[in-house]
Design goal:
Helix content: over 70%
Mean pLDDT: 81
Low-confidence stretches: none
Number of strands: 0
Shape: globular
Strand content: under 5%
Largest sheet: none
Structural class: mainly alpha
Number of helices: 13
Distance between the termini: 32 Å
C-alpha cells in the first residue's frame, strides 16, 4: 500500500476508534461503577501493552528517575484525567464530551506557550474564543434538557486541563524508553493509583455481565491499544498532519452518541461542532 494511502487509512481508523470511547464508557456505566470500570481498563491495557513491548528490540525496565517521571505522567494523563472523565461521563452527554475533548489541542498549545514563554498570537486567542463559543452553543440546550449538568461540565474542564498538563510534561521529558513501554507503564501505574479510591468510594454495585465485559474489551483493545498504536504511527510519520485527525473525533463522537445512545443531534449541536472544528483548524494552522 502506498505510504500516503496507509497514512490516510491509519488517520481515519484512529479517529473512528478514539472517538468511540465516550459511547463505550456510557454502555459500561450501565453495568459498572465508573472508577471500577476504568481501573479494570487501565490494569488490563497496561499488562497487555507491557507484554507486547517485551517482543520489541532491546526491551528493558525503567530505571532511576524514570519511575518518578512515569508516575507523574501517569497521574496527570491517566489516573486524574481519565478517572475524573469517567465520573463526569455520568453527568455529561457522550456527544458533548467529544466536543469538549476536541479542544485539547488548543489548550495544550496555550499551556505550552506559557510554559515556553512564547507570546500567544491574536489568531490563537481568536481560535480559543471561537472554540469555547462552539462548545457553549452545543452544550446549552443539553444542559436545559438534563443531558448535561454544571458539575459534569466543570469536571470535564478539569479533565482537559489535567490532560493538557500531562501532555506538556511528557514533551518536556527526554525519554529513552520506547513509546509502547512508556504507554504500558503509565497506564498500569494509573490503574494502581486509582485502585485505592475505587475500593474506598465504590461498593459492590458492579454487575460483571456481558455488557460490562464487552464495554471493557472495547475500551482496552480498540481504544487504549489500537487507537494509541495508530496515534503513535501517525506522530512518527508527521506530527502536524497527525494532529489534524483529532478534528474528526468530535464529528464521529456526536454521530455515535446520536445513533447508539439516542442523544440529541440538532442545529445547536451541528453549529457547535462546526465552530469547534473551525477553531481547531484555525488554531493549529501554521503561517
Amino acid at each position: 500500500m502506498h505510504s500516503r494511502s496507509r497514512f490516510l487509512l491509519a488517520g481515519f481508523s484512529f479517529a473512528i476508534l478514539w472517538s468511540s470511547a465516550s459511547v463505550a464508557g456510557k454502555f459500561g456505566l450501565m453495568s459498572s461503577e465508573p472508577l471500577t470500570l476504568f481501573t479494570f481498563r487501565f490494569l488490563a491495557a497496561g499488562l497487555l501493552l507491557l507484554a507486547f513491548s517485551t517482543f520489541q528490540s532491546h526491551p528493558r525496565l525503567p530505571i532511576g528517575k524514570e519511575w518518578k517521571q512515569l508516575t507523574i505522567f501517569s497521574a496527570l494523563n491517566t489516573a486524574l484525567y481519565l478517572g475524573i472523565f469517567i465520573v463526569a461521563l455520568k453527568e455529561v452527554a457522550a456527544g458533548i464530551t467529544s466536543l469538549l475533548l476536541a479542544l485539547n489541542p488548543l489548550l495544550i498549545s496555550m499551556i505550552t506557550s506559557v510554559w515556553l514563554k512564547r507570546k500567544i498570537a491574536m489568531r490563537e486567542w481568536f481560535s480559543i474564543a471561537l472554540g469555547m463559543t462552539g462548545v457553549a452553543i452545543a452544550t446549552f440546550p443539553l444542559v436545559e434538557t438534563g443531558h448535561s449538568s454544571v458539575i459534569g461540565l466543570c469536571l470535564m474542564v478539569i479533565c482537559m486541563v489535567t490532560y493538557s498538563l500531562g501532555a506538556v510534561y511528557y514533551s518536556s521529558v527526554t525519554w529513552t524508553l520506547s513509546r509502547t513501554t512508556i504507554n504500558g507503564w503509565q497506564v498500569l501505574i494509573g490503574g494502581f493509583l486509582l485502585a485505592p479510591f475505587t475500593l474506598y468510594f465504590e461498593g459492590n454495585a458492579t454487575e460483571f455481565d456481558a455488557r460490562f465485559w464487552l464495554s471493557l474489551g472495547w475500551l482496552v483493545i480498540p481504544v487504549s491499544i489500537g487507537a494509541v498504536q495508530l496515534w503513535l504511527y501517525l506522530l512518527k510519520e508527521d506530527t502536524v498532519k497527525a494532529s489534524l485527525w483529532l478534528f474528526l473525533c468530535p464529528v464521529f463522537g456526536l454521530a455515535y452518541a446520536s445513533l447508539l445512545l439516542n442523544e440529541p443531534f440538532n442545529l445547536y449541536t451541528i453549529l457547535g461542532a462546526v465552530l469547534v472544528l473551525i477553531s481547531l483548524y484555525w488554531g493549529q494552522e501554521r503561517m
